[in-house]
Amino acid sequence: MRFAWIAALLLLPSLAGAAAVDPAMLDAARKEGQVVWYSGLIVNQIVRPMVAAFEAKYSGIKVQYSRASDTETAVKILNEARAHRVQADVFDATNAIFPLLDAKLVAPYQPAAAQHYPAAMKDPEGYWTASNLYFLTFAANTNLVKPDEMPRSFADLLDPKWKGQMAWTSELAPQGPPGFIHNILISMGDQAGMEYLRKFAAQQPVFVAASPRAGVSRECLATTT
Length: 225
Known about the structure:
This protein is of the alpha/beta class and 225 residues long. Helices cover 30% and strands 22% of the residues. It is built from six helices and ten strands.
C-alpha cells in the first residue's frame, strides 16, 4: 500500500494560486532572512541536502528546520495558531494535513511541476502536493529472522511464533495502526477483515512510541516503511 507525503504552505496567502516563485516574495524573504520548515522527513538523507540546495539557489535566505513526527507537527502548529505565534512558513506531513485544513491554517499553492502529476498526487484546490511515496510492508531483524522465515503475507503474521514479537508505531498515522487496519479492511472486506484483525490483536503486537523506522523489536517488525 502506498501513501504520499504531503507538502503544504502554511499561512502564506500571498502565494495562493502561484505557479512560480514570486520575485516580491523572494525579496521579502531575504529581508526576513530565513524560512522555517517543519518536517517529518529523514534529516541526513533528505532535509539537509534540500536545505543546502535551497540556500545555494536563493542566497540571503537561511532555512531553519525542525524535525518531528506527523502528530507532533500538527499539534505544534495548532498550538502556535491558538497562541497567535505561528512560526512555520512551510511544512510536510501525511495525515497531519487534515486537522490543519479543518482549522484553516493552510494556504493553497500549486508548484509548476504539479501540472504533470497524476490527479491522485495533488489536491484539486492546490492545498497539497505529493512529494514522495511510501510503500508499506513488513521488515524484520535479519540478525534474528532467517530469510526463509520472513513473513510474506498478512496471514503469515498470525503464526503463533510471532506472538509478542512484532512491533509497530503508536502514532495514529498511515504507517501505524490506522493504516494497517484500513489496508486490511479494504483488501479483505469488513467481515473477513474484522475476523483477521481480532486474530492479529491476539498476537499482542508491541507499541513503540517512535516513528516506524526507529521502532525496534525482538524479532519481527510489522507494518513499517
